[in-house]
Structures are given as structure tokens and as C-alpha cells.
Amino acid sequence: MSTGIFAERPVIQKKSDIGLIVSIILLIGLGLITLYISSASYASRSQDSEFYFLYRQLQYVGGGLVLLIAASCISMNFIRKFLPLFVVVGFVLCFLPFIPGLGVEKNGARRWIAIPFIGTFQPSELAKIAVILFLANLFDKKSDRLDNPAVSVYPAAFGLFAFVIVVFLQDDFSTAFFILMIGFIIFFVAGVYLRWFVAFCIFAVPIALLFVFSEEYRVNRLIAFLRPDYDIHGMNFQLAASRRAITAGGFWGSGFGTGLRYVRNIPEAQADFVFAGWCESMGFFGVLLYFCILLYFGSRILYIVKHARNRFEALVAVGCGSTILLQSLINCGVVCGALPSTGINLPFFSSGGSSVLVMMIACGLLINISRKEFEIVSENLYE
């Protein structure tokens, strides 16, 4: 063996989880294809170009890739160092939609802020990442004092409910409730005593019901879910059209080149009901393919959580992975009528810049956490 300054020396290389990266690429690719076939007809009528939503989504994906690479390369210790600033900024951004001239109101809701030369951004999407990082950091630091609720549980619950309330005040009940669900998942995985977990659930359920019955349109959504055959030309029109598109797909689907007959009847199919386009074009086979990819993505998340370098990174992986998986399952449930209409979009499929950018950040964090160090012995040839 060689010795001296040119001796064999260990070289540390870092390798990310290839399976995770492949599943992310597949989800993004299928999302772009589905968005095009679902929106082409509506885009031709409303924007004079069948590629309008696809081109716009490609811009968001391009910007999201920059964020994904940044989130995957920046040290998790660096992220944790500036985490309090990120959480505070995320919380403050949630108040900006209420400021006249800066906030943008759509359909009676103030959920967006105007960004010059770019468009609009929905701060509640970024709040998902802020809550995940906040809870993961707190439960890691207080992991030895989970039996003391005043030190661990109460501060976590206070921070979680603060985000939930401010998002709900934007008239965005769906996102507020979704953030609450992600928070509960992290509470459970972090090892919070079951009695506290059950107590929070008991406390949250009646409040959620109160919020649901506080607005007429939410009650109408619940009625539409309970009675899917009622008023199919009114409140249930979108669901009825979605079901026709899903049924028309059969087993193998209508194909990409034949033109979709039924999905074009779904109002703004490029948004929350974009999955109906995939069902009509690819049929039951396509649905199985999608869920197989989603299942594989979930398996990589479990592997990453199990082999995370520390508790903080494991909890961040749980939060980011749960956000993508749970949001996907909820949206698919809504599209087929198994769940009430929520306004939760389908990650990587639905048109919308805020969701794409935040989901790409979440994927970047997952890739970051999946990265492992390998020691490789390299011998200098010029000894």
C-alpha cells in the first residue's frame, strides 16, 4: 500500500435516494401531461391557445426546480439555524392578503398577494412548510420532555393553531384544516402521549364542525357529498361531470390523441378536478399506474424517515411526505366523490404556481434528508 502524501485517502461522497428522485420526476411528468389533456379545450376557448396552462405550468416547474435544488443542497443545519426567521416570515406573509392593494380577492376570499411582474402567490401554501419545520424543530429539542406538556405540547399546539387560525381567516377552511391534519400527524409520530393527542382531536372536531356550518357554501358542499344525485345541474354539476369522465375511461382509457369528450364539460378542469382528465384518457389502468407511483413514493419516504440522520430530519421527512401523499389522496377522493369537495388541489397535476413551488421545496427537503455519505478509497496514480 502506498504511503506518504500521495497515499490512499478516503473520499467522502454524498448520494441521494435515486428511487425518490425517479418517483418525483414521474409525478411531475405525468402532471404536465394530464394538465395539458385536461385543459386544452378550455384553454382554446378562454385563452386562444390550447397550450396556455401547460406553458404557464412549465414556468412554475422551472422556478420550482431552482427551489428544489436549493432546498436539496443547503445544509439542514443551516436551515435549522435560520428556521425561526423562516417561520416568522411565513406567519407574517399569511397576514398580507388582508392588506388593501397588496391582497388579491377571488370569489370572496382573500388568499393571495400580488407580486409585481410575476403574478400572485398564496402564502397559506408556504405555511405548510413553516409548520412542518416549526414542529419538527420543537419536538426534536423537547424530545426528552414530552411528558411535560407545558414545555413541549402546549408551545407546539399554540404555534400550530396560530397558523391554522390565520389561514382560516383568509376564508380558506380546506387549507387550514389540512395544516391541522399535518400537524396532528407530526404530533403522533413525534411520540406525544396518546392522551394529549386524543384531547387535541376532541378539541379540534367540534371547532371544525362549527367552522363548516358557519358558511352556507360549506354546508352546500356537505349536502352535495351526502346526496350526489341531487341538483346535478347546480351544486353537483362538477362532480357529476367528473364521474362521467371517469366512467368513460373504462379500463384502458380513451387515449391522448382521441380528444376527451367528457372532461371538457368540467368547469376549470385544470384545477382541482384535473385527475378526471387522467382517468378518462388512461382509464382504470392509468389510475392503477398513478397509485403505484404514489405507493412507491410513499415507500421511499418511509425508508428516508427510518434512515434519517437525526430526529429533526425524520420529522421533516414525515411532514413533507405526508403533505404530498395526503393531499394527493384527498384530491382523488374528491374527484371520484368519495370525499366532500375541499378545494385541495392535486400536487404536480393541478394548475397553480404557489402549490407547485411549495411542493418542489418539500421534494427538495426530502432529497436533502435522503442524502447519505459514502467513504470511497481513492489511490493517486501519480505517487
Provide an overview of this structure.
Helices cover 63% and strands 7% of the residues. With 383 residues, it is mostly helical. It has a 3-stranded antiparallel β-sheet with strand order 2-3-4, with no helix packed on it. The longest helix has 32 residues, at 275-306. The protein is globular. The N and C termini lie close together (11 Å).
Q: Which descriptors would you attach to this protein?
A:
single chain; 383 residues; mainly alpha; two-stranded antiparallel sheet; 13 helices; 5 strands; disordered N terminus; disordered C terminus
Short description:
By secondary structure, the chain is mainly alpha-helical.
Secondary-structure blueprint:
Layout: E1 9-15, H1 18-47, H2 52-73, H3 76-81, H4 83-93, E2 103-106, E3 109-115, E4 119-121, H5 123-141, H6 153-168, H7 173-190, H8 194-212, H9 216-226, H10 237-248, H11 275-306, H12 311-336, H13 353-370, E5 372-378
Antiparallel strand pairs: 1-5, 2-3, 3-4
Helix pairs in contact: 1-2, 1-11, 2-13, 4-5, 5-6, 5-7, 5-12, 5-13, 6-7, 7-8, 7-12, 10-11, 11-12, 12-13
- Count of extended strands: 5
Largest sheet, strands/sense/barrel = 3 strands, antiparallel
Strand order of the largest sheet: 2-3-4
Distance between the termini: 11 Å
**SS class:** mainly alpha
Uncertain spans, ≥5 residues at pLDDT below 50? 1-7, 377-383
Q: What's the gyration radius in Å?
A: 23 Å
Mean pLDDT: 86
Oligomer: single chain
